[in-house]
Amino acid sequence: MEALLLLWLALGASGSWVAAQKGRSPGEGFALGCLLGPIGVLVEAMLPVGLESSEFAPRKTQKDSHEEAARLRRNAELQAEYFRDVATLIQEEKKRLKKERMWSDELLRLERHNLRQAREEARARERERSQHQRASQREPRQHQAEGLSKSDRVLLGIVVGIIAVFVLLCIVLIFRLR
Fold first, then answer.
1. Residues 156, 159, 164, 168: what is their CA dihedral angle, to the nearest 10 degrees?
2. What's the Cα-to-Cα distance from 49 to each of 32, 58, 61, rounded to whole Å?
3. What is the structure's pLDDT at 90?
4. What span, in angstroms and rounded, lies between the C-alpha atoms of 25 and 48?
5. What is the pTM of this model?
6. How many domains does the chain fold into?
7. Same domain, 22 and 84
8. Which range marks the domain in which residue 35 is found?
9. Mean of pLDDT values over 25-54
10. Alpha carbon distances (Å) from 131 to 120, 124, 135, 138, 142
């Protein structure tokens, strides 16, 4: 039992030492070594080097801090410039879309106008066609009358007159009989 406890602590210490050598947190290495045993030590050995998070990483000097601050300031300026450019592009795109929408609305209005005009023209053509059909239905009778010779027209007039007199006589008789 004591041997297992010593082995467990030895593997934790090994994981801690490997983590420190790789520039990682020794607590991380101890935890992996204790929990996973030799596999944990191997996992810690395969993890990438982490200089930033280790107490064994080289210390930054004041000069490095000033350079880092200058680099961060320049980065912030570049980001601010980028966002101003993006805002300008967004405004230009909004203007372009507004213009495009205005033209789309104008085209839609013209399409509607053209559609109304085409409907009116179609109705006018339909009225004209129906008038022409009515006229063409009347025309054959006129042509038939015009196609008769003068003597036939006179005879037709006499027949029509006789029929009219007959109809009048029938009407008079009907009223007298009442």
1. 170
2. 16, 13, 21
3. 93
4. 12
5. 0.32
6. 3
7. no
8. 1-58
9. 84
10. 16, 10, 6, 11, 16
